Amino acid sequence: MIYHLTEGLVARGHEVTLFATADARTSARLVGTVERPLRELGIPWDNHLYPLYHLATAFEQADAFDILHAHLNTRTDYVLLVLAGFVRTPTVITLHCRLPVTPDLLDRRRLLEKYRHRYYVSISQSQRTLPDLNYVATVYNGIDTARYAFSAQPADYVAWVGRICDEKGTREAILAARQAGVRLILAGKIDEHNPAYLAYYREAVAPLIDGHQIVYAGELDEAEVIRLYQGARAVLNPIKWPEPFGLVMAEAMSCGTPVIAFPKGAAPEIIAHGQTGFLCPDEEAMVAAVEAACRLDPQTCRRHVLTHFSVARMADDYERVYRRVRTGAATSASAAPSG
């Protein structure tokens, strides 16, 4: 998402500096703060010194920019809330994570509430579970619609794509496909380094994979995932947690493939019920929706994404955010999505 936003802004004539890994592909001016992604270097995400160095490098150069745009996702990113107060350049903070409202995340919640007057961008309305933050806009994530190309020739299967874990509803997708009598192709990562995820796969998912009706295709690359979307009658997305956005849904619909999901998180904002897919309260409703999805217009799915979830739309909306922040118009929370 950050890559596409950066490329979109550069294409519009903005001078953009990207703080990233030294091997990042970008048309912007690149400042590499570490040579390669931490996972490739064998460095754990909770090694705070690396993200701190990364953020400090950017904020030390703040006076060179009109806007700093930071992206908050992991717990190590919360330090940027503090750093933003030490520079004159306004900092826009996009929230990519589920906001901390549970007791075990009280420390993060207190930090957000202490710095509630920063300029926050939510990636869905459903994400706004902390109502007192200064939300200047909601900007939906954009995808490369040229790459996630339209196809209206589905094969005879449904698909599920994501990290194999309980919150993503892998087992529920399998049970719905079995009851609907359709072939299901699963594509996603089995996280062998996470004991809970690995146990879930071994105990709840693996026994249901028969290699015929229920097929596990492994962890596919982007081109393979696109072909999977393009060939699917529908994509099942029975998420069981309030996911702040959900790129899988937008990617599938960009290819002309309807999405059948549980109405959690941002799913009701992404799926136009009865037009680009279905929002189902349970597995039984999902079973009925599999057959109904065949009657939906693939072109409607595609147009929906072009209108709401394209890179161009995302860049448009962030340009509005930057202008509002620079002109001082973003001093109170906005209740509606940008644009």
Largest sheet: 4 strands, parallel
CATH superfamily membership of the largest domain: Glycogen Phosphorylase B
| Strand neighbour order, sheet with most strands | 3-4-5-6
Stretches with pLDDT under 50, minimum 5 residues: none
Query: What does the radius of gyration come to?
Result: 21 Å
Q: What is the end-to-end distance?
A: 19 Å
Properties at a glance:
alpha/beta, 3-stranded parallel sheet, 339 residues, 36% helix, 2 domains, Rossmann fold
Question: Which helices and strands appear, and what pairs or packs with what?
Answer:
Elements: H1 2-11, E1 17-21, E2 29-34, H2 38-41, H3 49-60, E3 68-72, H4 79-83, E4 91-95, H5 106-114, E5 119-122, E6 135-138, E7 158-161, H6 170-180, E8 184-187, H7 195-205, E9 214-216, H8 222-231, E10 235-237, H9 247-254, E11 259-261, H10 267-270, E12 277-279, H11 283-293, H12 298-308, H13 311-327
Parallel strand pairs: 1-2, 3-4, 4-5, 5-6, 7-8, 8-9, 10-11, 11-12
Helix pairs in contact: 1-13, 6-11, 9-12
Can you put this structure into words, describing what you see?
With 339 residues, the protein is of the alpha/beta class. The chain folds into 2 domains: 2-142 and 310-327, Rossmann fold (3-Layer(aba) Sandwich); 158-308, Glycogen Phosphorylase B (Rossmann fold, 3-Layer(aba) Sandwich), CATH 3.40.50.2000. Helix content is 36%, strand content 14%. The chain has helices spanning 2-11, 38-41, 49-60, 79-83, 106-114, 170-180, 195-205, 222-231, 247-254, 267-270, 283-293, 298-308, 311-327, and strands at residues 17-21, 29-34, 68-72, 91-95, 119-122, 135-138, 158-161, 184-187, 214-216, 235-237, 259-261, 277-279. A 4-stranded parallel sheet has the order 3-4-5-6, covered by helices on one side. Strands 7-8-9 form a 3-stranded parallel sheet, with helices on both faces. Helix 6 crosses helix 11. The longest helix is centred in the last third of the chain and has 17 residues, at 311-327.
